[in-house]
Each structure stands twice: as structure tokens, then as C-alpha cells.
Amino acid sequence: MDLKGKVAIVTGGVSGYGRAYCEELLRHGCKVSVCDIDSDAGDEMVHNLSKIAKDRVIFCPCDVTDYPQFEEAFQTTISKLGGVDIVINNASLMNDRLWELEVDVNLNGIIRGLLLAYRFMGRDRGGCGGIVINAGASSSAHPMISLPVFTATKHAVAALTSCYGDKLHVNLTGVKVIAICPAPTEAHLAADPRKRLLSGEYEQAWHADISNTMPVKCEYVAKTLIDLLKKAPSGSSWLVENGQLPKQMSLFP
Ligand SMILES: NC(=O)c1ccc[n+]([C@@H]2O[C@H](COP(=O)([O-])OP(=O)(O)OC[C@H]3O[C@@H](n4cnc5c(N)ncnc54)[C@H](O)[C@@H]3O)[C@@H](O)[C@H]2O)c1
Ligand SMILES: CCCCC[C@H](O)/C=C/[C@H]1C=CC(=O)[C@@H]1CCCCCCC(=O)O
């Protein structure tokens, strides 16, 4: 896919990987719609980016748990940037104490993003096709024993990607579906887990879960995103570790 001039929606685009994805897509000539619940940070980010990206970046308030608001973000993007070709379903929450919300953001939010992508990009609905990238994690294939619900959502993201990425759906809609599954960042590995685990008893398990994990840099993951957009086959999920080529995950041995 030639990225120049393509329009990308990035959910959870204001911080971390999402922000790095927005900046990298802009560097490759895309137009970017930064979609996030954090409107103050989103407005500030777009104000700063528009100094270099001029009319190619907008912010849309978007809570991925709220279908009508998510739909409005698609409509605003199409009317202001001229279409939508790429959807990065990146927004996520890691907090097993808020497990119902965690499932609603990490899994249902991605399903909403996919269904909206089909509605606005699907060839069977009058659209031009496109690509959806779903945010998994290393825990899409390897269990984090300290975070069972989070792990379940990330496994589900890979399964959803595998099914919707199948040629049955791609032939119908013209929409490819891929998952990017990065290793944790340094900030993530250093964070205090206590308020995010369902039980204080799981803290030791958290440290065991992240032991031997090498942090990865957001900028490296963002460069990998560009390679995946250009080359990855639909239905595939990719583990991204620092300085290494992405590895295709084997989900259903
Ligand atoms: N940080 C890591 O170490 C790591 C590792 C593996 C995978 N990931 C995955 O990468 C993605 C980004 O993670 P991150 O660490 O950069 O996240 P982050 O916490 O830095 O940013 C998440 C963004 O999502 C937004 N957000 C939260 N709830 C939302 C909602 N309901 N609707 C819209 N936006 C919402 C937040 O405001 C924030 O801007 C996630 O899917 C995450 O699971 C992250
Ligand atoms: C319990 C410790 C608290 C960590 C705080 C932190 O910075 C959180 C980052 C995340 C926000 C949403 C996620 O999905 C992000 C986290 C995804 C990280 C996944 C790591 C494990 C994996 O690679 O599967």
C-alpha cells in the first residue's frame, strides 16, 4: 500500500504507541485523525503537529465504548480529511480491577472499530476497502498469569484478527485485518502494578510475568507498523520486540 495521501484513524492516539503511530503515519504522508477520550491532550497534540503537518491532522473526541461517538469520529474524519483507508484500533486499558470496562475497551472497542471500518470502507457497502490494524500485545499469545482478564482480551484480539482477516471476509469487503503485538515499553515495566491487579496476592506473579522481558521503544514499534501496513498478509498477528524483525505469532497450532 502506498501510504501517501491515505487517511488513518488512530484510536487511543494521544499517548504511548498511539501517539508514535500518528507521528510515523504523518511522516509517511498520511492524513491522520487522532481519536481519544482525552480531548485536552488531543487538542494540544494536534495543535503542535499541525505546525508541521498543516491540514493533515485532526482530533476527534472518541470513546471506543460509545458506538454513536465512535461513529461520529468516522463521519467527522471523512468530512474533514476526505475518506478513511486505515483504522488503527489501538485504545486499550490494563486494569483487571476494572475488568468489565477493560473488556469493553480492549475487545468490544475493537469489534466496534472493525464494524465501523466495514461500514465506511467495505466494498460491499460502497467503500474502497482498506486496512485495519488491531492492537494486541505479547500476551496475545503468552499468558500473563497476574492479569487473566487482560490476557483474555488480548488473546481475543488475535483470534478476531485471524477470523476477520480470512479471505472469506477480505473478498467480500476489501478490508485486510492485521494485529500488532508489541512487547512492553520501559515505562510499562517500571509501573506500579498494585492498583491494576485483582488481588494483592498476584503481585509476585506480575514480577514473574515481566521478568526476562526486554523493553521496546515506541518509535521502533511505529516503524514496524508501517512495514506491516505495506506487507503483512491479512489475518496475521505480529510480535514486535526491540531491534528484532517482527515475528508472526502462531495462534492455533
Ligand atoms: N505500553 C506497553 O508496554 C504495551 C505493550 C504491549 C501492547 N501494548 C498495546 O498497545 C496499545 C497502546 O498502549 P499504550 O501503552 O501506548 O497505551 P497508553 O496508556 O499510553 O495510551 C492509551 C490511550 O488510549 C486512550 N484511551 C483509553 N481508553 C479509551 C477509550 N475508551 N476510548 C478511546 N481512547 C481511550 C487513553 O486516553 C490513552 O491516550 C494498547 O492496545 C496496548 O495494549 C502496550
Ligand atoms: C500493571 C502495571 C501497570 C502498567 C501501566 C502502564 O504503563 C499501562 C499501559 C497500558 C495501557 C493500556 C494497555 O493495554 C497498556 C499495557 C499493555 C502492556 C502489555 C504488557 C504485557 C504484554 O506484552 O502482553
Q: Note the beta-strand portion.
A: 15-25%
Number of helices: 9
* Shape descriptor: globular
**CATH architecture, please?**
3-Layer(aba) Sandwich
What is the C-alpha radius of gyration, as a whole number of Å? 17 Å
The total beta strand count reads 8
Residue stretches low in confidence (pLDDT < 50, at least 5 long) are: none
Ligand identities: nicotinamide-adenine-dinucleotide, (13E,15S)-15-hydroxy-9-oxoprosta-10,13-dien-1-oic acid
Task: Describe the protein.
- Helix content is about 45%, strand content about 15%.
- By secondary structure, it is α/β, with parallel strands linked by helices.
- It has a single domain (about 5-250), classed as NAD(P)-binding Rossmann-like Domain (Rossmann fold).
- Strands 3-2-1-4-5-6-7-8 form an eight-stranded mixed sheet, sandwiched between helices.
- It is globular.
- The mean pLDDT is about 95.
- (13E,15S)-15-hydroxy-9-oxoprosta-10,13-dien-1-oic acid (RPG) binds next to helix 7.
- Nicotinamide-adenine-dinucleotide binds near residues 17 and 105.
